[in-house]
Amino acid sequence: MACEESRELLHAYLDGELDAPRAAEFERHLEGCAACVRALESQESLRSSLQRAQLYETTPPGLHAKIRSKLRDSVAPPSRRVFAWQLLAAAAALILAVGISWKIVPRFRSGTSTSLAESALAAELVDAHIRSLQPGHLTDVVSTDQHTVKPWFDGKIAFAPPVRDLAEEGFPLVGGRLDVLQGQTVAALVYGRRKHFISVFVWPERAGEAEQYTGTRNGYQWISWRQGELRLCAVSDTNRDDLVALKDFFSR
Amino acid sequence: MPHLRAAFNLARWLLRSRADAEDVAQEAYLRAFRFFPGFQGGDARAWLLQIVRNTCYTWLEKNRAMESPVEFAEEQFPSSGPSPEALAVTGSERERLSRALETLPARSREVLVLREMEGCSYKEIASITSIPIGTVMSTLSRARERLQELLAAPGRKETLRGL
Predict the structure, then answer these.
(1) How far is Cα A224 from Cα B101, in angstroms, rounded to an integer?
(2) DSSP string for A112-178
(3) Does any CB of chain A come closer than 8 Å to the CB of residue B72?
(4) Residues 6+ apart with CB under 8 A from B86
């Protein structure tokens, strides 16, 4: 490889844009060419100066709000109502679509946020809980005795759900059942709370799930947490404090 | 507002002004919402940055007729900034780099910003700027060489050139 060609490839090499054979060829040239080594070093040092200088511009704090308000203004005139709705729908869709691509790019993912996969799952959990409230669907095994409910799951699922007797704490055990969520069989424990039912779904923890997440959907609350190698998620129309208390009793 | 940080940063470096970048970023987002039905899916950041970039150029044409985005147009306004020699001896490292970057023509500046600050691949830069990948590579290499010349201290200039 001639120096001239090498200088052309230097930047692509620096940016990791050369394929493996070209990169190897470039490196072979470097071994015998001090001038190209110096050129590469000087480009590397330019890059680190640029990074050190932190030239990335900070976004003005009010810009976000300004764009929102402009967007509202631009959709306000009544004569353009149809257009306005289209614009609003487009705006919502844009935020959603960009949001999705945002979430699936791992480097942007923050540890505390609820991922989209988690909220999709949460929606399924709430639906499963609602379904179970239909007559005859609540439990497959009816028992207030944890020593009856726990063995019932044996052989039906590949893990042992933590069945707790919490009657004294105000959460009497009602029974258990099996549910299928996202193609996976999960255990559901049913507890009573005053006149409400709480489903506690249990499945083996999957990689990448947040430590704990909570949310609301159609008036149902859910709270999900990790317990050893298992993931638990309590769903109910009772208040959030009840679910937090139940979670605390479970993880004790 | 998704990708607002990246959008504002690109606009600021293309327009070399925070105030103008604020205006153009707002306009770009309104355009994005309007164009959204035409979005084919794919890389939303690249799509958005493309709109920001195009909005910047439209704005530049309208408001700064004197400023040409053509390669190495900095020769046309040499008096607008300090000389490379002055750059080398005054100000902090950050100021020096920032002013040197602003001296580059817009086309060079945008590829540098997308590559060094946004971490875009050549392919992403090509799709944002609508130029072929080969041109991305040559523009980037010229931009970096030029930046280095601008930053080289007067005494070291000859040595660097001699490399």
Answers:
(1) 49
(2) TSPPHHHHHHHHHHHHHHHHHTSTT-S-SEE-S-HHHHHHHTBTTBSS------BGGGTB-EEEEEE
(3) no
(4) none
| pLDDT confidence bin for A42, thresholds 50/70/90 | very high
Q: At which residue do the structure tokens 């959460």 appear?
A: A171
Rounded CA separation A132/A124 (Å) = 12
pLDDT tens-digit profile of A65-76?
999 888 887 765
Q: Say whether pLDDT at A47 is over 60.
A: yes
**Beta carbons of B131 and B139 less than 8 angstroms apart:** yes
Residue A150 has a pLDDT of: 86
State the Cα–Cα distance between residues B58 and B145, nearest whole angstrom: 28
Q: Tell which residue, B114, B146, B145, has the closest CA to residue B127.
A: B114
Q: What is the mean pLDDT of residues B28-52?
A: 83
Minimal CA separation from B73 to chain A, in Å:
22
H or E element at residue A201: strand A196-204
Map residue A197 onto helix, strand or coil: strand
Interface of A to B at Cβ within 8 Å reads: 7-8, 10-12, 15, 17, 35, 38-39, 42-43, 46-47, 49-57, 59-60, 63-64, 66-68, 70-71, 74, 86-87, 90-91, 93-95, 97-99, 101-102
**Mean predicted lDDT score pLDDT of chain A:** 81
ipTM: 0.80
Indicate yes or no: CB of B116 within 8 angstroms of CB of A47. Answer: yes
Q: Read off the pLDDT of each residue in A39-67 and give the average, rounded to a whole number.
A: 91
User: What is the distance between the alpha carbons of residues B111 and A40, in angstroms, rounded to a whole number?
Assistant: 19
- Is the CB of A67 less than 8 angstroms away from the CB of B140? no
CB-CB under 8 Å, A38 with B163: yes
What percentage of residues in chain A have a pLDDT greater than 70?
81
Q: Which residue has the tokens 């080398």?
A: B88
Question: pTM of the full predicted structure?
Answer: 0.54
